What does this fold into?
Amino acid sequence: MIEFRQATPEDAPAIHRLNYETFVEEIPQHQPNEERRLVDRFYDTSTYWVGEQDGHLVAMCALRTAHPFSLEQKGVRLPPGEWMEIRLLAVTRSYRNTRTFAGLMRAVMEDALARGVEGVVISGTTREQKLYRRFGFVPFAPPVGPVEARYIPMLLTRAGFFESETSAVLRPKLLLAGPVELSLNVRQALTSQPMPHRSNEAKRLLQNVQAKLSRLVKLPYMYTLLGSGTVANDAVAVRLAGRGLILDTGEFGKRLMDHARRAGLLFDVLAMPHSEADWREVERYAPKWIWTVHCETSTGELVDMERLRRYAGEHDTIVAIDAISAVGTFEIDYSFADLVTFVSGKALRAAPGLAFVAMKKRAEPIRRIPRYLDLAQYDPIAFTQSMSLIKALEVALDEMTEAEIETHQRKMDVLQETFAKHGVPFKKKPNQAPGILALHLPDPLSSSELGNQLHYHGYRVQFESDYLKAANCLQISTMGWTTTRDVRAVATLVATWMHKKTATMERDGVKPESLAGPNDESYDRGVLS
It folds into this structure.
């Protein structure tokens, strides 16, 4: 596995060697020397990104924001705005036409975007014009340099990068629990012209979508709010009364507690029940209502809905369920629950921005609460609504067949099997959710470092939330429009990275398998041909 990272002082000798091999021996831009070493004159004012494989530097490029740029020193006038210059872009011969160039470009563009510049400029060699243009680079000045080392000044804006021929390929696949990877049909639906939300067509569209959602969760009344799961849970909190019980499932169980406190509710807290004895504790509290998440996103664990169903059938207790990370990942009958919340941007495989409250009974007006949270006003549209989001959701629901729902469990099985095959240390949970797996890394491994490496290799997983950083944890989700091949590739990359960081010849007697070394295949997501 190639590791993409910012260079350290220890990388200097290898950088100078690759610089010589590329810009003296291959491209005759400088004179040869006996040391076979070329130190760039801007070395001390540049940030270098490198690709390293098995201790060998196989790719590099330099980034500069200090003026004058090398292009300016050649008499080229830059466009207005703040720019960053890419220089010394080099990939060793045996690593060309692989994932290497794509990974290096992801790392570089992430750096550029983080700096807030207009974009990047580069001296694009005339031999690679097709490749540069596919990435969105465009010429902005006449060619410069001698005939044997001719360059064209080119620029790449942020917009140009995201609109380029290869942007869809370079954009990492989302293995997040939200936002998720969308199908092409859903993305196309999002580009449709918005319709007036008070029109009869808008009403018909929403009623059609809500009917499909009702059949999915097995509850008759559906209310659609513009927003995230937070607003849906707020709308639930204002409908609870008396002393209740909240199940502490983890990070998102605690968020339900915060909703309840802000709504002025009285409640007790019980750690997530794992046994019949635990559930008997629920009876001891005799709550007027129970509020729990179904899938605790932070751990990937499911609460036992069958046991909650039995309790609801035996007691006169309101049951509220945050099913945000559960709906759409497997077939579930929520008809026993009074209130269930979920959203568009997770396993429904639509864009984020729509929140839903499903109810067993029709919502009664509550005059004392904020207008936006009074579900009784939604009949079906109360306030400004995004009909583009609803149209995209309609397309996503049409795509969400029973066979597609079953793919979540299949992908989760492949993910865990691949981890086991490669010896990744993880504890398999009996109540593992099919939609998301949490992987805790042992010290001194860094979940942030691993998450960034997966990003450079074309896959984005969750690791940037504060609670995940604190737990040194990353999460891999099956919720989006992804395949078993995607999750197998991610699991293999995780395993390779962990072995590289931890395994030694003395410990296991074998060298960790290199799964991303040089080969003659074109990049499998279409960057190079």
